[in-house]
Every structure is written in structure tokens, then in C-alpha cells.
Amino acid sequence: MAKLAESFGHRLGIGEAARLAGLLHDLGKYNPAFQDYIAGRGNSVDHSTAGAAIACQRAAGGSKIVAEIVAYTIAGHHAGLPDMTGKALSTLTERLNAFAGASLDPAWESELAVNAANLLPAFQWETTDRPRCAFQLALLGRMIFSCLVDADFKDTERFYGRIEGRSFDRQWPQLEDILPGLLDRYDAHMSRFGSPAGELNMLRADVLSHARSRAREAPGLYTLTVPTGGGKTLASLGFALDHARAYGHSRIIFAIPFTSIIDQTAAIFREVLGDEVVLEHHSSIDDEDKSPDRRAGRDKLKLAMEDWAAPLVVTTNVQLFESLFAARTSRARKLHNIANSVIILDEAQTLPRPLLLPVVWMLEALARDYGCTIVLCTATQPALDRHNFPAGHPAGLPLEGKELAPDPEDLARRLKRVTLRHAGPLSDAALIDELADAPQALVIVNSRKHALQLYRAAEAAGLAGIVHLTTRQYAADRRRILADVRQRLKSGAPCRLIATSLVEAGVDLDFPCGWRAEAGLDQIAQAAGRVNREGQRPVDQSIVTIFQAPDNPPPSEIKDLTGDMQRMMHRHPDLFTPAAMADFFGEVYWRVGKEGLDRGRLDGEPILQKFRLSGSRTDFSYRSAAENFRMIESGMLPVIVPGDEQAREAVRQLEIDQIPSGALARKLQTYIVQVPPKARGLLIRNGKVAFAAQGIRQDQFAVLLDGTLYDKTVGLLWEDADYLSFEQFMI
Q1: pLDDT of residue 40
Q2: 426-451 burial: b if 16+ Cβ within 10 Å, else e
């Protein structure tokens, strides 16, 4: 197992440290009491602390601090990375202090031959900036941890496979081996469009050509700033393929902010490159049960979700970044395969501001130390270039000269397709009056409550083609609704879509006009990207109306963003230029300050301050940081809505112990509605929701029992609440 961990680490330049972790991780099994335990003669014995203690004792010089980092990984290889100190249970300090070395059989010395030298990787260490150096070392710990736990899982898997006569298909082609074929497929796909005709298609071709022409430049951080409809997705894929061929990257990872658009992007890549190379990984329910006896019957794609071994991974920001900051073994396994990747961050403006500093530091460390190339891809670039910040500001990235698009200012001018109208306060009744004169129109508001209220009012007013779209509906229904909307738009049928902001980032829609409740400039620009998307209508007739909703004021965060916009909008005749967007984000960053860019979700403490150096010792709080690093602050909880026979069958299968939870979670993920915790608790108490197969799955699968609470047009109405048993529901 140590050799396998070393092989994973070798590609990252951390092979010696990964080998040491693998060699010592089960050292505690040399304790005679542990041998009694596995023989059935005693109680369970801690077998993780011994290796952590010996790693710390045996290293010296420059290797000592890395050995201490290795100790975190050994101590956490079952329960997850611990905190060194603090209020958390079982801190590493407490465990190391309690270790009694005499309890080990001395035979381990001759059998393991521990070498704790030469552990420090040849990175560009941030020696003059202790906070950044601490973060750099903490990420090193996560990468070593990833090598260790992935090797441990696979070694255990092989063991059970041998004794039970089972095999596991984890073989994926190496990206470098299949790149010639992928590039042929990509070029063939693009050639189907023929010679570009029309200004928009010529502009898209120019964006693509320019991005691909930069692919031989050195790995690192890049931006791709292209207005909506300018062909960002295929241009970024072309750059990624060419760049990976030039520099031998191991895989391409596309990270997308919302599950509502991940299917759309994955479908594009499958069409272009083929089904067999694309892994789509996102889930609203995590499979925490990874025990070897639950592994039978899992297919190649499900196995690949554990370690991201596929050549091309399409995932969410939540999955990517919460894995990079994870303490749990199941989520950390994939980290060593994130190294040496081309990472495209689609809709980069959605990176959560309260976590922006740790995210920025993570991106810079991945590019500097682990061979990643990262592209911030968006129509509304979040102004992260160091030149946009005061000298020494911790949020800045070295992005000067790293733009892949040809002249973003000129692109914004040429791709301008809407005219903004500021309407001021607009009641629902007044808005419905305006909608009556627009047979096809998009309305975006700031809350699910307002969307539902407005939909019902428009319906009562007798407007034709009223459609409602929010996260009250589960993903499968949202996909069906969006397909219907596209068909209506194409055929010219009445289509008045009332939605929340979920349609703003990456959803391919093309309305003649739109209304947007007041929000930040980035959201307004994204909303405008759903109007006259293909540029087939005159700009002066493609109106996007910004309005205040006096009866439904925005949440405080959005209200603050509207204030940021109002402070800068008079300085720019066109608010959709990159210069205006940079000005807007500058106002945002100035208002929230450094402390507003690094704030843990649970305790409000900075994530970056959870990793400190004290002299030559570390004080890392891996577990606390992981608990506080949450990309989505909503605190919502999932409810499964068995809305069709496929979902109902998956719910029935929850009672079958032999079917892994992860396999069923993936079947059910498109039938999930996220609800407030208090609402789910009330639904459970009133018998409307129950945990399915609780004896097998614990509290993992909360299933809606009362189907009358879900309406496909408006979604789950948890506010409407008679008792129905689970058995009655399943009949």
C-alpha cells in the first residue's frame, strides 16, 4: 500500500511523504491488544495514532515539519483529518500526548524500515509570508492525505476482490494517449458549422481561434471574458484540449456553479468527445458508506466518482472546492487527481464572496505547486487581477496578460444585444400589466416566494403561456420545463417565464425582452444574457427592465449589491463593459473589506486563520475548516419527491441492503428539492416526510409521503401541511 501511495504522490513531487504515510498508517496494528481484537478476544484499539507519533519522532531538519503534516494524515486516515488543537473532540495534540510507544511489538522496526528524510517537496515556498506558507503546507497535507486514503481504499478493495472473486473496472485511458483522437473529434464537430456566416458566428469563431492560439503559453492562471452567447464553452474546451496536449495535463475538469446547468454542459461534451471519456459528478446526497462489502455491482462511472480518474470531469463548484477543503476521507480521495489538471471555472462570478480569499489562495497554490492551469471563464469577470486591488491585498491573482479572449472591451461592444431600462418601483399588478403586452417575456425575481406569488397573480389575470421555474421543483421537472420553454420560444407560442436567478448562469434561453428585480450588476448582466441571445432582434427593441419590488424587498446581501451598483453606474454609459464590471466588483470588495472575503459559514471565523505556524510547528484545524467551508450558505436540507415511476422504484430499492447508497443517491438526485430545515422538521413531525429504510440508510434519504404537496407547475409547497404512513405511500 505504501508503494501505491508513493506512486500517487510521485506525480505531484511528494512521493517520499506519501510513502511514509502509507508505511506508518497502520503501525498501531503491531499493538498486541489490536491482534487480540481482530482475533475476537478484546475491544477495538486505536491503530492510527502510533504511526502519527513515530512520524513526528523520526524526522529531523527540514523534514520535521512535513513529518508533522504526515501525522495529521495518518491519524485521520479513517475518521478524517483532525485539528491539532482546539475544542474539537480528539485533537491530534491530545492523541499524540496519550501515545505509549511501549505498547508496540518491536518487530515493526525491522519490518518497516522507516526513512523520514527528504520529505520537503521542491516547491516555491512562501517563506516571506507566513499565512500563505501555512496555507501552502496545509494543502500539502491534504494532497498527502489524498494519496494515502485513495491507496488505502484501493488496496482494501483489491483484497476483498481477491478473496470474493470480484473485480472492479477502474481503468480509464490516459488523457495524453487519447488527445489526438479527442482533438480530431473536436475539430470535426466545429467543422460542421462550416465557414462562419453573420457577425455573431464570425465573432464566435474569432474567440475560438484566439483562445486556441494561446494554448502553448505556460501553464498557470488565465481568464476568458466573453459576453453571453459568444461561445465560451466550446472555446474553453478547445483551449483545454490544446493546452493539455502541449503540457501533458492528466485531465480536464469543468466546474459549474449550479446543478441546473451541469447536464446541459455535460451533454455538449459528450456530443463533441463521446460518452466514454466524460464523467459527470454531482449529487445532493453524499454516499458516506464506503465499506468494502458494499462495493459489489458498482459500475465504472460510479467508481470514478470516488477518485476522478476519468479524462474529462464535469462537476460543480461545490463538489470541487468542498473536496479541496475537505477533512473526510471520501471527499479527499480525488485531490491527487485534481493536480496536473486543466480546470475551467465556468461562470466564475458566482464564486461566493464570503469564501473568496481561501478560494483564490487555493487556485494560486494549485497553479504554482501542483501543475494546474486554471481558466476563470465568464461574461462578468469578478475583477480578481492584482492590479484591481491595493498593493498587498490578499485577494489579487497574477492575471495581467492572461486574458484568452480577443479584446474583451471590443467584444462587449460588438455583442451588445439589449437596452437597459430602469423602471423604479413596480408592483406585481403593474408588472403583470406590462407582461400583458409581451407574449414572450422573461421575469426574474429574487426569491422563490415572490416568484410563486407573481406566477399565481399572472395566472389569475388570465395571461397565456405562464411558466414558473424555481428550485421548489426538482431538477428533472426543471429540465422538462426548460425544454418546453425553448420549444415555445422557437415556435412563437406565448411564453411568459417567471423564475428565480437559477436561469441566469449558463441556461440557454433567448427571449425578446425581460424584467429583472434589482440586484447586483453581475446578476443583471447574466439576466440580460437570456434576452436577444442570438442577436436576431434590434438592440433598441430588446429591452431589459430593472425594477424595484416594493412588496418583496430583496435579501440584505442583494440590497447591498444594488447599492454597490448605484455608486458606480453613473461613471459608465454602458454597464456591460468589462471596465464597468471591474468597477462594480471594486465597489463590492471595498464595501465588504478583507474580512468579508473570508468568513466561515458556521462560526464566522476566517478559514485562512485556521491554518497557522507557530515557530517550526503547525497548528492546523482541518476538521473545523472543512465544517466551515460551505460553498452554499442556505443551510437547506434535501427532500426526495418520487414524482415518477423511476423515482418510486429507486425509493423502493432503498430497502435492498445489497444496493449501495451511492448508486441510489445518484438515481434520486434529480428528484430532490432543498427545503429550510425547520420546514423539513415540520413535514417529518406531521407525517408528510419520512426517512426511507432508516435501519439500513439511517437519516440519509428523506422522502415525501404526501404527493399532494408537490405540483409540477409550482413545485413543493412545504407551507401547506394528515398523516400518511410510508407503507400506504408505497402502495
Answers
A1: 73
A2: bebeebbebbeebbbbbbbbbbbebb
